[in-house]
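Design job #97: recover the sequence.
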């Protein structure tokens, strides 16, 4: 289990990057379809990361639970 580097800031840095890129693209292009798709993209990533966290808790019950208490999921210090 890795808890250093970007994983010290958020538990799912890849999803944070993907969401950031998607939001930036929607803002720059301003298409209505992108604005409509944004909540769907967020929801799909949220469902996937919750599933992954359940697996991590099974594999590393004590370590991952402590890690969850220390580090936010997607947005540092917020979410």
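Job complete. Output follows.
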């Amino acid at each position: 289990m890795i808890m250093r580097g970007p994983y010290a800031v958020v538990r799912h840095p890849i999803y944070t990057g993907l969401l950031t890129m998607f939001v930036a693209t929607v803002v720059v292009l301003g298409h209505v379809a992108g604005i409509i798709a944004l909540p769907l993209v967020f929801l799909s990533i949220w469902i996937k990361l919750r599933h992954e966290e359940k697996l991590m808790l099974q594999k590393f019950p004590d370590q991952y639970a402590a890690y969850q208490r220390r580090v936010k999921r997607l947005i540092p210090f917020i979410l």
